[in-house]
Amino acid sequence: MIDKKGILFILSGPSGVGKGTVRKSLFEKDTDLKYSISMTTRPPREGEVDGVDYFFKTKEDFEQMIADKGMIEYAQYVGNYYGTPKAYVEEQLEAGNDVFLEIEVQGALQVKENFPEGVFVFLIPPSLEDLKNRIINRGTETEDLVHSRLQAAKEEIEMMDYYDYVVVNDQVDRAVQTVQSIVKSEHCKRERVAFEYKKALERDEK
């Protein structure tokens, strides 16, 4: 029998691009992916639920987890911490399950250092004007914060070269279908399948 270790998929992109919307739509469909919930010190937005959208923690609790090396990645963004707890991700990958992270760009680059074998997907808006409208339409940001988020987004878009795939989020359903295609294609990659078969052959010869 071939032991299949899970694949870590990372969806990232500039603030306001719709990462959360694409992730929610993806998981509303029939999927074997396991979602790794991020942790943050920012307050919940309207409708967000602790343990579903994010783990909402105090700054002190978050910093203790950093000290205990309990995070795969973490970053400070517009005054708040965001990060991914390590234990759940490692357990699921070892059990052969694919894990899906939806995180900020700074965090994704840290994951690339710790899990270079991960599959990195960059979600981009159709245009910067579209991104600006999305941030404004949230209605949760002050004018200064809208400006700082847009400036940060422009800098993040320049980091696209660190990713394996780029998906344009012009329509949510279309973006979700593209992400699903990426998941399927990664499982069919020659080097991934060949590596698993070679391990199985080596065990069979013993």
UniProtKB/TrEMBL annotation:
Gene3D superfamilies documented for this protein: Guanylate Kinase phosphate binding domain, P-loop containing nucleotide triphosphate hydrolases
Molecular function terms, GO-annotated: ATP binding; GMP kinase activity
Pfam families attached to this UniProt entry: Guanylate_kin
Keywords tagged on the record: ATP-binding, Cytoplasm, Kinase, Nucleotide-binding, Transferase
Binding of ATP, residues: G13, P14, S15, G16, V17, G18, K19, G20
Cellular component aspect of the GO annotation: cytosol
EC number(s) recorded for this UniProt protein: 2.7.4.8
Compartment list: Cytoplasm
Residues covered by the Guanylate kinase-like domain: 6-184
Reaction it catalyzes: GMP + ATP = GDP + ADP
Top EC class, one word: transferase
CDD domains, sorted: GMPK
Job description of the protein: Essential for recycling GMP and indirectly, cGMP.
Protein family (similarity comment): Belongs to the guanylate kinase family.
Record-given protein name: Guanylate kinase
Gene it is expressed from: gmk
